[in-house]
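Need residues for this backbone.
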């Protein structure tokens, strides 16, 4: 005769524990935190009976100590506890980037507490005591599933980074793999990051990748370019202002710090920020509090700050453009981005990724670049870095429309540095001989024909050299009675 499962009912808290249905969820760890032994023990027994691995703690402080050796996939915690309560426990875990899905239990629950716990502290769900076992079990299953999905997403991020992709960044070179490693290490923390690199190397992409891989990814990402902001507006943009703070302040306005609350703020081109504003910024970073312009009270902020600059740090510090105390405050982690000319191995994957994006943007069907184009890319110095590569490819995608990008689709002066670029294509004087009495229209026709001869009838390049649109060139050829006005040589 089969024995009945051992069932015990604890009426005081409403738990029904069924022992005998084991090992269906081995590998999922649950930490139960409650200061009352009479509630903690039966709750843990019930969850263990469902097949989960369970550990317990009487308060938040001991829960943190348990988590050093016990990797919890889900936390079930009471709110009101001595030493460290559930609120503080979740705040600490969130700040450290180690917050698993948390189910909050309390006998004092209400709508306000639920909203604060779920939205402000990042809890998974909220339940009032006495607990309904069936509801708790469903929540626990869903929380465990969310934890598994988060772990799988993290694993895929790591796997993609090994193949040259991390969020919106791509690169297989040694330099980019080192950058990916640092991003993955620093993202879960609250540490400040300083990103250094030439213009166009992708400093904002680094900041966005850190944000997307952090516990703050669901909160705002706000970027401000310090070089593009007039000094008179910098403080109001950063810290906000109250109505009437200055002429034209007709209403209260939140600054970038408030807009980025619980999220990430990128301070791009930090060395261009006025020194006085840098001093005020330093105090905000140290105190995590700010005062709007014209305000009488301070506001608490929880913002992860990432700074970026295209300046050489030694030069910026020596000239006093960047305060040393602010530099040391922000330089907890430094990420150096190599210029494109130093990581040419990334050209194939960068080109492929950019072509895919540009095809979608312009509804084109460009497949690749020819070996000749890729060789030209490798020989070029790329002073504008990845931003310049994108601009060159965008023009080429529009010119080609479909198929591979060829040399004829690149700008006629591609590969010539800006300083040495000629103002226009120059012909030898003996090739242009016009008799006295030649009309302007005749001279124009002769120049167009000579230019087409020079470009081997490549009308796209001829139009560039002449400084006119392709449509204008076709109209001129139509006037001259050309038979191939509808054709464009690649």
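Answer:
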């Amino acid at each position: 005769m089969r024995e009945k499962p051992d069932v015990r009912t604890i009426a005081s808290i409403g738990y029904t524990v069924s022992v005998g249905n084991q090992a269906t969820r081995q590998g999922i760890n649950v930490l139960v935190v409650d200061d009352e032994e009479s509630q903690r023990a039966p709750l843990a027994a019930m969850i263990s009976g469902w097949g989960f691995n369970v550990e317990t703690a009487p308060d938040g402080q001991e829960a943190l100590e348990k988590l050093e050796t016990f990797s919890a996939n889900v936390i079930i915690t009471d709110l009101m506890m001595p030493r460290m309560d559930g609120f503080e426990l979740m705040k600490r875990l969130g700040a450290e980037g180690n917050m698993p899905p948390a189910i909050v239990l309390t006998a004092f629950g209400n709508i306000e507490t639920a909203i604060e716990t779920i939205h402000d502290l990042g809890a998974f769900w909220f339940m009032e005591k006495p607990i309904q076992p069936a509801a708790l079990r469903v929540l626990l299953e869903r929380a465990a599933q969310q934890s598994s999905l988060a772990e799988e997403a993290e694993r895929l991020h790591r796997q993609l980074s090994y193949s040259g992709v991390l969020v919106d960044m791509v690169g297989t070179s040694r330099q980019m793999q080192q950058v990916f490693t640092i991003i993955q290490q620093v993202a879960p923390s609250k540490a400040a990051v300083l990103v250094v690199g030439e213009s166009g190397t992708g400093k904002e992409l680094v900041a966005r990748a850190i944000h997307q891989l952090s516990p703050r990814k669901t909160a705002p990402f706000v970027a401000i370019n310090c070089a593009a902001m007039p000094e008179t507006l910098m403080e109001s943009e950063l810290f906000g202002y109250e109505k009437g703070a200055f002429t034209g302040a007709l209403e209260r306005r939140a600054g970038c710090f408030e807009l980025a609350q619980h999220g990430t703020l990128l301070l791009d081109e930090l060395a261009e920020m006025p020194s006085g504003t840098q001093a005020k910024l330093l105090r905000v970073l140290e105190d995590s509090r700010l005062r709007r312009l014209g305000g009488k009270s301070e506001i608490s902020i929880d913002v992860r700050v990432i700074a970026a600059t295209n300046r050489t740090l030694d030069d910026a510090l020596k000239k006093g453009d960047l305060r040393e105390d602010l530099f040391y405050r922000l330089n907890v982690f430094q990420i150096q981005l190599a210029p494109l000319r130093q990581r040419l191995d990334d050209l194939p994957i960068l080109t492929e990724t950019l072509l895919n994006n540009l095809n979608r943007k312009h509804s084109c069907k460009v497949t690749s670049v020819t070996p000749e184009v890729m060789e030209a890319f490798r020989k070029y110095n790329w002073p504008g870095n990845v931003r310049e590569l994108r601009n060159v490819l965008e023009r080429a995608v529009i010119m080609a429309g479909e198929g591979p990008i060829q040399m004829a689709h690149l700008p006629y002066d591609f590969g010539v540095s800006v300083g040495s670029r000629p103002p226009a294509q120059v012909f030898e004087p003996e090739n242009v001989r016009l008799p006295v009495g030649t009309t302007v229209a005749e001279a124009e026709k002769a120049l167009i024909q000579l230019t087409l001869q020079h470009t081997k009838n490549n009308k796209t390049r001829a139009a560039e050299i002449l400084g006119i649109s392709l449509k204008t060139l076709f109209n001129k050829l139509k006037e001259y009675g050309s038979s191939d006005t509808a054709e464009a040589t690649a």
